[in-house]
Amino acid sequence: MGSLLPSDFRRPAVCSPAPSPGQSFGHSLPPRRPAPRSLNDRREMSVSTGLRIIVADLLRRPGAQRDVHIDAPLPDLAAGPVAIPPEFPVHIDATLERIPEGIVVRGEVDVVWASECSRCLEPVEGTLVVGIDELFEPKPIDGETYLLDHDTIDLDQVVRDAVLLELPPAPHCREDCAGLCPTCGADRNLVPCGCVEVDDDPRWEALRSLEL
Questions:
Q1: Looking at residue 147, what DSSP letter applies?
Q2: Beta pairing partners, 23
Q3: How many CA atoms within 13 Å lie on the side-chain side of 105?
Q4: Strand bridging mode 146-147 / 123-137
Q5: Residue 117: pLDDT above 80?
Q6: Which helix (H) or strand (E) holds 68?
Q7: pLDDT score for 118
Q8: Which stretch of 43-47, 103-107, 184-188 has the lowest confidence by average pLDDT?
Q9: 71 to each of 2, 87, 90, how far by Cα in Å?
Q10: Under DSSP, is residue 209 helix (H, G, I), strand (E, B) or coil?
């Protein structure tokens, strides 16, 4: 066995890792800035969940306008037996406009309502389109305008007020609904019951006793 030379004790070579993208040996590049958001992204950020809308962009620009399209649930909205089902969100198409007094909201609200026929008690549904044209201002007038809360407006009460005024008070399943028989309770849309209605209103008794 021959003698080992000093050169035989050299350390093994160590391979340096390849530089990752954006780096080089000895120094690193500054981090990249995120790409600016598009106009559509900024508009999406300006509309919060539900019916609350941030209008800071409009408040900075007198006369500015912005269209909004919102689908949101409106729970516990009813007028007597007629209600807005929670599974059917209200749909709003509106234009927001900056005026000296505050923010004006003009547009339409589409809702689906559900109830029972006031004559035969069968389930009945319908649709309703209601126009809105309301002012939001920092110091609202009770019953006339709505609150502009710093840079936010809330359409919840606007929609409720507009829809409640237009819901049908006594909906029918159809115009010629015959209803239920007051004597036997049969649905006269399905079967003729043959009952004879008798007018026994006591208010007519005095007239019946008169001999004309």
A1: E
A2: 28
A3: 31
A4: parallel
A5: yes
A6: strand 65-72
A7: 93
A8: 43-47
A9: 89, 12, 6
A10: coil
Q: What does the pLDDT read at residue 99?
A: 96
Contacts of 4 (CB under 8 A, 6+ apart): none
Taking CA atoms, 64 is separated from 98, 100, 102, 179, in Å, by: 5, 11, 11, 53
How far, rounded to the nearest angstrom, does the alpha carbon of residue 88 sit from its chain's CA centroid? Answer: 9
**For the whole model, what pTM was predicted?**
0.65
In the chain, the N- to C-terminal Cα span, in Å, equals 152
Contact between 62 and 100 (Cβ < 8 Å):
yes
> Is 127 or 199 the better-scoring residue by pLDDT?
127
Q: Which residue has the higher pLDDT, 116 or 42?
A: 116
Q: DSSP assignment of 71-117, as one string?
A: EE--TT-EETTEE--TTS-EEEEEEEEEETTEEEEEEEEEEEEEEE-
Q: Calculate the CA 75 to chain-centre distance.
A: 10
Residue 106: count of CB within 10 angstroms of its CB: 13
Q: 68 or 39, which is more confident?
A: 68
* Contact residues for 3 (Cβ-Cβ < 8 A; gap 6+): none
Cα 165 to the center of its chain, rounded Å:
18
